[in-house]
Design a protein that fits this description.
The protein is of the alpha+beta class. It contains 22 helices and 31 strands. InterPro entries: Bact_Sigma-Reg (IPR052016), GAF (IPR003018), GAF-like_dom_sf (IPR029016), HATPase_C_sf (IPR036890), HATPase_dom (IPR003594), PAS (IPR000014), PAS-like_dom_sf (IPR035965), PAS_4 (IPR013656).
Length: 805
């Protein structure tokens, strides 16, 4: 309906724009009763903003006039010619007398009762929408927005958000609205909390956009709200899953992996989390099937709470506990699927009451919601994870269960990997320890102490090895090596190399020759068993290799012959405390092939200290090899009285924490054989020297008080000297050594290796070495710079063992 019937309008407005007087004509024109409108802002009546000139006159306190559209109480739009006259009240406060005449009255439901298209659009939009004027006062809101706000449009019209709801977060919304009106730029804002009339948490996304006229001037703004609760929680779940992917499984340690799972769950959606592993899994063994009709023993591996100190826990981390028969934990383990429970559920209540401590904790902390999710990987159950809520008001939802199952599934793979790694590491360590010496042998040539430290947690066992090998003539061989790679394969290769070294040492090869033979063995292993060996037997893969240091010390001459194959140089501490690293030719690592090794002979004073080690001792994440050698020099500069204490002192000084690689440290303090226990004779290349040698040997044994051994020794001396005269050559030397055994050595100038022969019935010779082998406990030969030495060892009288007659 349209018309131009004049109506009297008289209103008094104060300086703040609040209506103080409402005339009867204003009531008839706009439909508001005085008690509905007096005390409210006049701006709520404006259907459009005041013209610019009118606003300036109002601001300057001058008379003004202009046409303006006003809202009727029923939603009609009334166009009025207004006149504003300034006036003062009794307290000389400025007031405005506003009078007007109606120019037009347009009903919202014009024609056939249909709303204008814009009003229809606003009203029927499926999302909350509100429109505000330039002063951030509400002009219109659709029905969905009024439901979100919890108030009718009439109650909110003409008010700012701060006037509607003077509390957070509406203060933030009000500030953002004014920012949009000031800058003319759209603002996007997200909020999550509890919606009016709702019990659960909600999330909203708000778009606050400026409304501009044809000149680009901002005339108001619109606010559109979208319910993004599902998207918000989906993002939250994705964030938790992403956090789980980044944090869980950072180490190959079962306990730490379980702790990471608990930390992620507590920081994401649970108030208290426990991780229980089956007892067999906690011990590193294969998981056993979970019986439904028996108590299930588990070990509390990790737990975490939003409260300090896990006050909800009734089982300490590392302790064993058990689930009673038929309780929800057992049923969940057997079913292999997660489950949700409320504190009042009969089955859960029965399980809670089975433990007075658990019942007391549940009651004290008001735990109201529980989820149980089995740890399963590769079709095998490893344990059970409990998720509890007591500070979070909402119970666990089905989406929470799906999230928990996803996190636990990811963690289960990491737990299983850590379990498998721990088992393999333990197997490799057991294998390696079984292949290494148990304790140092009792030697006259030197005192030995050593330490073997496997790599720290998270690292595979390497192939470091060492050995102390007694040789003929009271000599001692020291060997330290490091196989390339880690794990059982490296340990197995190490065992083969250690056995080969012992075999080669038994035939008294010189250090450089021994390394050459060992190099050929490594190449052969690489060709036959290396990772790339299949179908390529004629080539080497380069994946099997090792470093090695081999040293032979002779306590009679007090000289040590050494050679190394790519191994760190040994350290020598002289009796006066000076420390130096021996300058030995480095040599190529074993497995390179084709390159020579060089041996160096070093004189050693009595009570000198040799330090042999692997590179794990001097290489570390926080320092390089040079710094490690400096620390080793410092530690050896003040050795303790006992070798065992010195070993500990070196490790304390050089190592800052758990080693990242295997470490071998071997210390050897040299001794000299007493001159009274060694007797040497030079023999001429004359057959008469045989009788002379027998006589001198018998006299020496008498002087040593070993007359009981004279007959056997004279036979051995006779055969060895005869053999040297017949098959060897000058110079010929006889040496007797009295130590833990009686050793007879005969050296000659021939390098031809002797071998046993079995003489036939009519043969006159061929029985010498066979006789020596029967009379002695051990015998053998070794090469020397001038020829060879054949030696025979027999126990001292009164000792067990010995050869035949």
């Amino acid at each position: 309906m349209q018309g131009s019937v004049p109506e009297d309008l008289a209103v008094v407005v104060d300086a703040r724009g609040v209506i103080t007087v409402w005339s009867d004509g204003a009531r008839r024109l706009l439909g508001y009763e005085p008690d509905e409108i007096v005390g409210r802002g006049a701006a709520r009546l404006l259907a459009a903003d005041l013209p610019g000139a009118t606003r300036r006159h109002v601001a300057d306190g001058q008379r003004w006039a202009g046409e303006v559209a006003l809202w009727h109480r029923d939603g009609d739009r009334v166009v009025v010619r207004l006149h504003g006259t300034p006036m003062l009240d009794a307290d000389r406060r400025r007031l405005w007398l506003v009078t007007g005449t109606t120019l037009a009255h347009t009903a919202r439901r014009a024609g056939h009762g249909a709303l204008p298209l814009w009003d229809l659009t606003l009203e029927q939009l499926p999302v909350p929408v509100a429109v505000y004027d330039r002063e951030a006062r509400l002009v219109a809101a659709n029905e969905i927005m009024t439901q979100v706000m919890g108030r009718s449009e009439e109650e909110m019209k003409g008010l700012t958000l701060w006037e509607i709801e003077p509390r957070p977060p509406f203060d933030t919304y009000d500030r953002l609205q004014r920012e949009v009106l000031r800058t003319g730029e759209m603002v996007f804002h997200e909020e999550h909390g509890q919606a009016p009339g709702e019990t659960g948490p909600h999330a909203w996304s708000m778009f606050m956009a400026p409304l501009k006229d044809g000149t680009g001037a901002v005339q108001g703004m619109s606010a559109t709200v979208f319910d993004t609760t599902e998207q918000y929680w989906a993002r939250r779940r994705l964030a938790v899953l992403n956090d789980a992917g980044l944090r869980i499984g950072s180490t190959l340690d079962v306990t730490r992996t379980a702790e990471e799972l608990a930390e992620v769950a507590v920081s994401g959606f649970a108030d208290f989390v426990t991780v229980d592993l089956l007892e067999s899994v906690a011990l590193g063994d294969e998981p056993e099937p979970v019986p439904l009709d028996e108590r299930v023993t588990v070990r509390r591996t990790a737990q975490r709470s939003v409260l300090e100190g896990c006050p909800e826990s009734v089982v300490a981390s590392g302790d064993a506990t058990s689930y009673p028969v038929g309780t929800p934990p057992v049923r969940t383990l057997v079913a292999g699927r997660g489950s949700r429970h409320r504190a009042g559920d009969p089955g859960l209540r029965e399980w809670i009451r089975s433990s007075p401590a658990r019942a007391e904790s549940v009651s004290r902390h008001m735990i109201h919601s529980v989820m149980m999710v089995p740890l399963r990987a590769r079709g095998v159950t490893l344990g059970l994870v409990h998720f509890l809520r007591h500070r979070t008001a909402e119970p666990f939802s089905e989406d929470d269960l799906l999230l928990a199952e996803e996190i636990v599934a990811r963690a289960a793979v990491s737990v299983d990997n850590a379990r498998r790694y721990t088992r393999e590491r333990r197997t490799a360590l057991a294998l390696q320890r079984s292949l290494l010496p148990d304790r140092p042998p009792d030697l006259a040539a030197m005192q030995v102490a050593y330490r073997y430290l496997p790599a720290g947690s998270g690292a595979d066992i390497g192939g470091d090895w060492f050995d102390v090998i007694p040789l003929s003539g009271t000599r001692v061989a020291l060997v330290v090596g490091d196989v390339v790679g880690h794990g059982i394969q490296a340990s197995a290769t190490m065992g083969r190399l250690r056995t080969a070294v012992r075999t080669l040492a038994d035939v008294d090869l010189a250090p450089d020759e021994l390394l050459t033979q060992l190099d050929d063995l490594v190449i052969r292993i690489d060709r036959e068993e290396g990772p790339e060996a299949r179908g390529r037997a004629a080539e080497t893969s380069g994946q099997v290799g090792a470093t090695c240091l081999y040293a032979v010390y002779d306590p009679v001459s007090r000289r040590c012959t050494m050679a190394r194959a790519g191994h760190p140089p040994p350290a020598l501490v002289t009796p006066d405390g000076a420390v130096r690293f021996l300058d030995l030719p480095a040599g190529p690592p074993l497995g390179v092939g084709g390159l020579p090794f060089e041996a160096v002979e070093v004189p050693l004073e009595e009570n000198s200290l040799l330090a042999l080690y692997t590179d794990g001792l001097i290489n570390a994440a926080d320092h390089d090899m040079e710094a490690g050698l400096a620390l080793l020099r410092e530690a050896l500069g003040n050795p303790a009285g006992e070798l065992e204490e010195t070993c500990e002192q070196v490790l304390r000084t050089v190592l800052a924490g758990r080693p990242a690689d295997d470490i071998v440290l071997m210390l050897a303090r040299t001794a000299a054989l007493d001159a009274g226990k060694v007797r040497t004779w030079q023999l001429p290349p004359d057959p008469a020297a045989v009788a002379r040698a027998r006589k001198m040997a018998g006299e020496q044994l008498t002087a040593w008080g070993l007359a009981e051994a004279e007959f056997t020794t004279e036979l051995i001396v006779s055969e060895l000297v005869t053999n040297a005269l017949r098959y060897g050559g000058a110079p010929i030397e006889l040496r007797l050594i009295r130590d833990s055994a009686l050793i007879c050595e005969v050296s000659d100038g021939s390098s031809t290796a002797p071998h046993l022969r079995r003489a036939r019935v009519f043969d006159e010779g061929g029985r010498g070495l066979l006789l020596v082998a029967q009379l002695s406990e051990r015998w053998g030969s070794r090469q020397t710079p001038t020829g060879k030495t054949i030696w025979a060892e027999q126990p001292l009288p009164g000792q067990a063992g010995g050869g035949g007659d």
